[in-house]
Amino acid sequence: MARRSGFGTQLQAARRQEITPEMEKVSAKESVPAEVIMQRIAAGTVVIPANPAHRNLDPVGIGSGLTVKVNVNLGRSPTSSCLSEEVEKVRSAIRYGADAVMDLSTGPGIDSVRLAVLEASTAPVGTVPVYQAAETVERFEDLSEDDLLGVLSKQAVQGVDFMTIHAGLLRSHIPLASRRRIGIVSRGGALMARWMMAHERENPFYSRFDEVLRIAAEHDVTLSLGDGLRPGCLSDASDEAQFAELDTLGELTRRAWDAGVQVMIEGPGHVPFDQIESNMKRQKQVCGGAPFYVLGPLVTDIAPGYDHITGAIGATMAAFCGADFLCYVTPKEHLGLPDLEDVRTGLVAFRIAAHAADIARRHPGARDRDDRMSDARFRFDWETQFSLALDPDRAREYHAMTLPAAEHLKSEYCSMCGEKYCAMRNSAIATGRKNR
């Protein structure tokens, strides 16, 4: 009988060969034996972000041999949105299939927003604790090392399931970033670089990483080791700064595993299409097969307003080449805070990318839904088509838009071709097959 360990992490339980309820739930979702899930968690190639304090969590597995997952970033900014809007974004994200959400709120009232997000989300919730730390002072460099670590502990107690920690960006890496076209584009990475230069000291998340690990182990928080030096434009991709940080992340991955802490690695933002495969392979090699959480990658820099498309193109390739977890990009990327419709559009775009990669990777059963859709299309079974769509509401809306209400659900054609020119209808007549 599966049981949740009275103490410790999913990784520690797996090493004791204990199958937790969370492993059982992931096994049922993925159609992968629970024993296999347990073995992969023990090896560090699968994580289940599941802080026991997140009471309404529906556990999700991320990593080797599992379906590709998609994260939705949300959260208020000092200039836009409010708590109720962010809660509505959470509900919309869950409705349209998000596997996880990250609350990246800045500005006042962060605790209230996060608690509301945790209450509303059945998916794992992630944060970047350094954002909240920055809100407590006028100047970021006024924070002490204890202040920075204290926020981690506070958020872990609240129930956060995974945290982005920029522990791999070292003081020695900053001169490498200064050679770039646009420097450091990670908010957390830039803040930590500023702190190190002001104090002339090493990154406290690195120098005191053992304390970070103790907090994570106590609350079973999965560490998402942040890519503070991710490239922010194609010109800076695959440079010395990016890979110097990656090497440090490999070291920290092993230290996390030694401490029984689950860990995944964040990776490159803007990468030319032809460099994606080598980036995926290098990360897996350096970090021992730890799950790879991909930000983008955006494959061109000239698509503001359409970066959900350029990001989804890169994400499909990244997932096909081994990425396990995709962080969505919305049409507002580089332009402003996403609203409710942006969240929906970005999420569906990246769910398409994840699903396309699952099919190409020949994940068992990945294409079943597509085959059922094809059958429904041939039968002109519109209701089944809507139910199988990644965004059923949008499919229903578009189909109904150009046909009379009394006709659109029983028609044997759509408004693209009409009855006379419908290829499937004419094919059925020619071959003697019945559509319905």
Description:
The chain has 436 residues and is of the alpha/beta class. It has two domains: 49-360, Radical SAM ThiC family, central domain (TIM Barrel, Alpha-Beta Barrel), CATH 3.20.20; 368-431, no CATH class. It is 48% helix and 8% strand. The chain has 20 helices and ten strands. The chain has helices spanning 10-15, 21-30, 34-43, 83-95, 110-120, 129-134, 145-158, 174-177, 187-199, 204-207, 209-219, 240-258, 276-286, 307-320, 340-360, 368-379, 382-388, 392-401, 418-421, 423-431; strands spanning 46-47, 62-63, 69-74, 100-103, 125-127, 162-165, 222-225, 263-267, 292-295, 325-327. Strands 3-4-5-6-7-8-9-10 form an eight-stranded parallel β-barrel, surrounded by six helices. Strands 1-2 form a two-stranded antiparallel ribbon. Helix 14 links the parallel strand 9 (292-295) and strand 10 (325-327). The longest helix is centred in the C-terminal third of the chain and has 21 residues, at 340-360. It starts with 9 loop residues before the first helix and ends in a 5-residue tail after the last helix.
Distance between the termini: 47 Å
By CATH, the topology of the largest domain is: TIM Barrel
Question: What about the largest sheet?
Answer: 8 strands, parallel, barrel
Q: Give the domain tally.
A: 2
Helix-residue proportion? 40-55%
State mean pLDDT (0 to 100 scale): 94
- CATH architecture title of the largest domain: Alpha-Beta Barrel
Name of the CATH superfamily of the largest domain: Radical SAM ThiC family, central domain
